[in-house]
Amino acid sequence: GAQYSSTALSMVGAATFIDSLYAVKVLCYDEGKRTLPELTALLESDYAGEQSLRQYIINRIPHHGSGNAEMDRFSGQLLRDLSGVSGQTNGRGGRYYPAFYPHNMFRYLGYRTGATPDGRLAHTPVADGVGPTSGYDVSGPTASCNSVAKLDHAIASNGTLFNMKMHPTAMAGQKGLESFIDLIRGYFDQQGMHMQFN
Fold first, then answer.
1. Cβ distance 142 to 66 under 8 Å?
2. Are 7 and 95 in contact, with CB atoms under 8 Å apart?
3. What is the mean pLDDT of residues 33-45?
4. pLDDT tens sequence across 117-148
5. Prediction pTM value
6. How far is CA 127 from CA 37, 109, 137, in A?
């Protein structure tokens, strides 16, 4: 048998989870816009008749990877908490080790998941990897890189993945290429881990 029989516990949808808990904090506790039962009913209805509130959540409440200092602290704490599974014993006598990468499961798992408090509609993809939710990274690639680099990637001993989607015009010409290289170097200079691009 295997001498090492560990299990990677890949936490798909990390930013969906982070953004959702932060939205609950803001909507139900900080601002009192909804009670928890009201928010639950709203999610069960898939935001029916509440598009203005959904847009408020998407456009006014900070999201993971936005460069917001408070959100960066919130994200870091939640990922530390989730990584508490590290070293727990699995069914084979090995250990669980946390990871934050999607295995292309973010679409399938999103399809099986109802609406979430971050403004995500039911049966749509959850976030992939350790980066911001696609479409919520409106503060630009540098802000996203700076926020994700602040996470303690070492706590995810099975790895993290930061997916970035870049329009080809952003890397056009020598200046674009140099800016792209600077973005990557800046991320790794801040102790960021694995990143890949589409």
1. no
2. yes
3. 97
4. 999 999 999 998 899 998 898 899 999 999 99
5. 0.91
6. 25, 10, 11
The stretch 156-176 carries a mean pLDDT of 90
pLDDT at 1 over 90: no
Q: Please tell me the distance from the alpha carbon of residue 176 to that of residue 9, in angstroms, as a whole number.
A: 37
pLDDT at 94 over 80: yes
Q: Give me Rg for the CA atoms of the chain.
A: 18
Residues 86/79, Cβ–Cβ less than 8 Å: no
- For 59, the 3-state DSSP assignment is helix
E-only strand ranges, 21-157: 96-99
> What sign has the CA pseudo-torsion 188, 192, 193, 198?
negative
Quick one: tokens of 118? 């971050």
DSSP letter for 171, please.
G
pLDDT tops 80 at residue 88: yes
User: Contacts by 177-182 with C-beta closer than 8 Å and gap 24+?
Assistant: none
d(CA 194, CA 155): 14
From residue 86, alpha-carbon distances to 44, 82, 99, 101, 187 in Å are 33, 9, 10, 16, 25
How far apart are alpha carbons 5 and 91 in whole angstroms? 10
Q: Is the pLDDT of residue 60 over 90?
A: yes
Give the CA distances from residue 180 to residues 40, 48, 189, in Å, rounded to whole numbers and listed in that order.
42, 41, 14
